[in-house]
Amino acid sequence: MSADMIPLLSKALGETVYMVAVSMVIASVIGVPLGVLLHTTGKGQILAAPAFNRVLGSIVNAIRSIPFIILMVAIIPLTRAIVGSAIGTTAAMVPLVIASIPFIGRQVETSLKEVPYGLIEAAQSMGATPFQIIWKVLLPESLASITAQLTTVIISLVGESAMAGAIGGGGLGDLAIRYGYQRFRPEVMIATVVILIVLVQLVQFIGNTLARKLDKK
Predict the structure, then answer these.
(1) What is the pLDDT of residues 178-208, one digit of tens each?
(2) pTM of this structure
(3) What is the pLDDT of residues 149-164, one digit of tens each?
(4) Domain tally for the chain?
(5) CATH number of the domain that 129 lies in?
(6) Distance between CA atoms of 62 and 90, rounded to whole angstroms?
């Protein structure tokens, strides 16, 4: 691989990390409360509202069922309205965030379901409010599991950010398509794949380490 590709690979890696990090933060701010809502409004839960839960769950499932490549194209007008452009790393974050929010919501809901209901009943018997139960029982007890689940979301975002390169989203996917595929340079394709593999392995290692440290069992 020629020396001129090193700066391009570095720049593309930086764009990918930027897209994934910012998208993950924004999606988590909305997705984690969504997951709490999905769990606590379920039948027999502390904020039971079955009808609302079914509607919310249906919306979440509908968004999750849309393939990411289709979602990116379908919301181009929305992306352009939010960031002023449908091309580039910042524009790519709009579909990344929208795709990640319901994913995070379901992952957090799954983690919260692992908390023994006896702990909730004990908190209720001591007069704890639903908010106190969420903040002091559900989230702390499921923190290790939520960390592991969010690690899975980050890895999914890495793959989706590469896919965003198909419509000029920047990052490693864009580099692989423009310089590797369109210019018939297989070494560029191989380099981007290797970098993505290393990035995913690093994210998984950090996530697993944090989850083990947070696990109270």
Answers:
(1) 887 777 778 888 889 899 999 999 999 999 9
(2) 0.91
(3) 999 999 999 989 888 8
(4) 1
(5) 1.10.3720.10
(6) 25
